[in-house]
Design brief:
The chain is mainly alpha-helical. It has one domain: Four Helix Bundle (Hemerythrin (Met), subunit A) (Up-down Bundle). It is built from 4 helices and no strands. The chain has helices spanning 9-45, 51-69, 73-87, 97-117. The longest helix has 37 residues, at 9-45.
């Protein structure tokens, strides 16, 4: 049995790039699903005790952080804007129609940025 061959620096870099691409692909797919959850939660913003707001806020925070880590700066920025908008709302209180519309626009802006950064491949 021979000893394992140590990868060259170039091989290590190639492996890291491959792994980063895999993580980016997973991020895009997960974020598409999270955007669907956000859209479904929108109708609840005006009528619930804040659970929908908390869920959208949590997802926006996660998208912002992970997006920044993986190099999706514009996606991260859109998620951060959404997060800040939601963080300004009183905890546990239903959101008014104006806020719900602002959140809807922020979610669609985030979705558009994700689509631009990582278009679907056939």
């Amino acid at each position: 049995m021979g000893s394992p061959v140590n990868p060259t620096p170039e091989e290590k870099i190639a492996a890291a790039r491959t792994r980063l691409a895999e993580l980016a692909e997973k991020f895009v797919e997960r974020t598409r699903g999270e955007l669907d959850v956000m859209r479904r939660s929108l109708d609840e913003l005006a009528s619930t005790d804040g659970a929908a707001l908390g869920e959208i806020l949590h997802l926006a925070h996660r998208i912002s952080g992970t997006g920044a880590t993986l190099g999706f700066e514009a996606v991260s920025e859109r998620a951060r804007i959404l997060e800040q908008l939601l963080a300004q709302q009183p905890a546990g209180a239903p959101c008014g129609a104006t806020v719900v519309e602002q959140v809807r626009r922020a979610i669609e802006s985030l979705a558009a940025e994700l689509a631009a950064a990582a278009p679907r491949t056939p």
